């Protein structure tokens, strides 16, 4: 409520815009579309007189091809989503003899918010109101609460519409593109014979990598015993503290403390100066003598980390986090459902 009100006060959003966003969300939840199968051979590039099409991209650059499929899928979803929305409104408008633009607000009558509701919004956002009194802001708060009523009415109307006129996305599924990625004895969690192997290229200083760890833990918990998770170093050059943090983590392997160090480094992702990293590592119970001895050979440590980076670059990794689920490339800190869908399909094979 608080964040919604601040956003609305700063820049009131039109009903149509807010409803449209909601419609797309519901449409895509109603039917989880499969991936697109499309080999566009009529579109090509000529290099030195030789023609190359998308099948050549797939053969020589599977990651680039995978990204193409993902972006093409999203484009199809958006295009069909807009089309489906218009058609649904046309159907209902014809049935009820009203304008398509009136479908979602049909029958809506705003009720006057109670004094208690108005006061609650005011008190929750008082610090952001520039010292204005309740009387000075009451009109805008009432408008915000009525706007919320209208949104809820629109959501209920749309649920009724898609119940009567179900929407299913019928998009063909492509061949799965897999990339061979070596583990090279890097730290791992899970059984070696697990049906699912996830290889993660990540950076302890990367905020998106930190965000992805919650999803990663959820996946390991849900598929415990079925999934093997391998971590490979990929500190980005513009993260000045990342390389040292990765070296420090690798120096905890001998004491069997790698994953404890892994967790504490990501928890402190925004504060990875050398002295703090040392303190965090030793705080996990790593032997101080062993740690200091290991960290002396920084050339060797950097060489091992750079080997991970080079291996990642060879298979198309250019940013973090990057994942390979049984060789299927997934880029970025995506929601749980994006990974779960792939894993479910892999388990069924």
In short:
The protein is α+β, with helices and mostly antiparallel strands and 349 residues long. Helix content is 55%, strand content 9%. The chain folds into 2 domains: 2-164, no CATH class; 188-348, Glutaredoxin (3-Layer(aba) Sandwich).
Tell me about this structure.
InterPro entries: Thioredoxin-like_fold, Thioredoxin-like_sf, Thioredoxin_domain. Residues 167-348 form the Thioredoxin domain. The chain crosses the membrane at residues 16-36. Keywords: Disulfide bond, Membrane, Oxidoreductase, Redox-active center, Signal, Transmembrane, Transmembrane helix. The protein has 349 residues and is α+β, with helices and mostly antiparallel strands. The protein has 2 domains: 2-164, no CATH class; 188-348, Glutaredoxin (3-Layer(aba) Sandwich). Helices cover 55% and strands 9% of the residues. It contains 13 helices and 7 strands. The protein has helices spanning 2-10, 15-30, 54-60, 62-96, 115-124, 134-164, 207-222, 242-250, 258-267, 274-282, 288-296, 298-314, 336-348, and strands spanning 44-47, 50-53, 188-189, 196-202, 227-233, 322-325, 328-331. The strands form 2 sheets. It has a 5-stranded mixed β-sheet with strand order 3-5-4-6-7. It has a two-stranded antiparallel sheet with strand order 1-2. The longest helix has 35 residues, at 62-96. It is extended, with a radius of gyration of 26 Å.
